[in-house]
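Work Package 3 (structural annotation) set out to generate three-dimensional models for the target panel prioritized at the project kickoff. During this period the team completed the workflow that converts sequence records into discrete structure tokens, so that structures can be stored uniformly alongside our sequence database. As a representative example, we reproduce one entry of 179 residues exactly as it appears in the project archive.
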Amino acid sequence: MAKARNKEEDKERKITGKESMPVDEQGNYVNPIDGDKIADKAHLLTYGVERGAVSIKAVDEGKIKGLALNSMYEQTDMQLDQIKAQIELLARQANEIQNRMTISEEIYKAEMNIDPIVGRIYYLYRRPAKDGEKAPRGTTKPVLSLVSPKEWGPSPPYHYIATVKLLGDHTWEVLERVD
């Protein structure tokens, strides 16, 4: 009877394609793979444990870190160059403001027989100190005028210094300067 049963099972296996699962005397499933030859935590292994598993290769940490450092240096150098350019621009702007302030102080100390209007162009001259003025001999005084050097003709009465424009903040912008 056992042979007949095995023949029937063999026929069924051939028809269905199912292999019989190993069972013990109580009918419980028995793993056919030796427990000493399998991994309990296969996901923690550093290599693939199945036939179709992805190959796991050791990583060259030095190469990865080297590439990351090169990229980091390139980016930070670029950002530092941008900041350097911004600092240079701010320094130029600060110098321009300082120069405007210096020329503005000189103009406000100048002799002016006019009431300057914002946005208009004026001319700054130096004239020798007059005999009656309390000034060391050979010194000059600034004079602000509406008359340009060309309008004075070939012999202007004063020494031309600069062409200036009064700005809205009451500082003076130098448009042209003779050094």
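Residues 67-177 form one domain.
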